[in-house]
Amino acid sequence: MTELERILEAIIFSSSKPVTLKRLQKGLPEFTALELQSALSALVTAYAASERAVEIVEVSAGYQMRTRLGCKDWVKRFVKEREVGLTRAVLETLAVVAYRQPIAKREIDSLRGVDSSRSVRQLLERKLIEIAGRNQDVGHPMVFRTTRNFLELFGLRDTGDLPTLKELEALEK
Hints:
This protein is of the alpha+beta class. The protein folds into 2 domains: about 5-75, Winged helix-like DNA-binding domain superfamily/Winged helix DNA-binding domain (Arc Repressor Mutant, subunit A, Orthogonal Bundle); about 90-170, Winged helix-like DNA-binding domain superfamily/Winged helix DNA-binding domain (Arc Repressor Mutant, subunit A), CATH 1.10.10. The protein contains 9 helices and 6 strands; from the N terminus they run H-E-H-H-E-E-H-H-E-H-H-E-E-H-H. The chain is globular and about 55 Å long. It starts with a helix and ends with a helix.
């Protein structure tokens, strides 16, 4: 393991949020972006190849140390998992935003068949969605998109990691 890999491992270990390459470049100006990316790749590969209980994963455009799924039940005995506490209506609204972003509230309401004001407000308060601007429709309504907090909560690198319709249908069977 190189000195840079040890430095990155310590930074990722001690950070409660995913550490982005941009943040690393800013905090470690003595290393090039290529050196940082190379060391991160080596570190991720080393953790993936080992039988450690933790892994370094790319999530929300950054890197984070997480417990492997195989150890989850053991860890739950000692560490209280934070409750997401999202109702079915809020999850439904979040799914519509995630798959159709950027999307206006009027479109969310149309897809769900009900008023989504409360759900949108809760998602904004929890910082799972954000205002992405306004569209060109009549009245120029605000449009919403998911946030980094959304990606982090669900362990996604980006929205391209969301399951496809075929994958969701296969889960139902």
